[in-house]
Design brief:
Elements (H helix, E strand, L loop, with lengths): L24 E7 L3 H13 L3 E10 L6 H6 L3 E8 L11 E4 L2 H11 L9 E5 L2 H11 L12 E5 L16 E5 L6 E5 L5 E3 L5 H8 L3 H13 L4
């Protein structure tokens, strides 16, 4: 409905960019659409002389997209899928596993195909359930294999991402310091990348469910009108 010559207002970019280290070994773990963000982070990591191990998880192999860019953005990939079709590893160093990302890491670290002891930094993006599972595994099944000094970061997508830095409060996320138990609230739109051990994933899950009804209604409307 815009007319030629009509004035419009644009804002941004705002928020905070992902920190890209130099000369580290970085483990990227992506679930589903999280991989749409991670391969660009992987490209930036590679350009900054980092070694990148990428674990890419999908419900099924037909969800895979931008395969070539994911391969260019990583030194080694573990492809994970839970349902057919499968994802074939095309490069000799890459691996495939039917199951979730945590199961894949546990399996391949035990077979010696993956080295987690050299990982300096872990960056995880996906559903709140997947990120919570990785948080739990870091202190459980994966703990004996991880570098005890590594940093673990997750990308928190709260119910609202206006990027206005504290204007509306709908992106508030509860954090609990794992050492002191102190509770804090942070504006996720100011910085989605948050220390994994401090994130209260049960709080995040509950807040995301607030939008469940409207999201399902929108999905039904889109399908009814053949827009997807």
């Amino acid at each position: 409905s815009l007319q030629e010559g009509e004035k419009i207002s644009l804002m941004g970019p705002t928020g905070k960019p992902t920190e890209i280290p130099r000369g580290e070994t970085v483990l990227l773990i992506g679930g589903g659409l999280g991989n749409a963000v991670l391969f660009s982070i992987g490209e930036a990591l590679k350009k900054n002389q980092n070694h990148v191990l990428y674990v890419a998880g999908y419900v099924s192999g037909d969800q895979l997209f931008y395969r070539e860019r994911i391969e260019r953005a990583s030194d080694q990939i573990i492809w994970c899928w839970e349902n057919d079709p499968v994802i074939d590893a095309r490069r000799p160093q890459d691996l495939g596993f039917r199951g979730n990302v945590v199961q894949a890491l546990v399996y391949f670290v035990r077979t010696g195909d993956v080295d987690l002891a050299s990982v300096d930094r872990m960056f995880v993006i996906g559903s709140d359930r997947m990120m919570a599972a990785v948080q739990k595994a870091r202190h459980g099944s994966l703990k004996p294999y991880l570098n005890p000094c590594h940093q673990a970061i997750c990308s928190v997508n709260s119910p609202m991402q206006c990027m206005m830095k504290g204007m509306c409060g709908q992106c508030l996320q509860r954090h609990v310091d794992p050492h002191t138990g102190k509770e804090t609230m942070v504006f996720s739109c100011m910085n989605q990348d948050q220390p994994m051990d401090g994130v209260d994933f049960s709080c995040l899950s509950g807040r995301l469910r607030h939008n469940k009804a409207s999201e399902e209604l929108t999905s039904l409307w889109v399908k009814k009108h053949g827009l997807l």
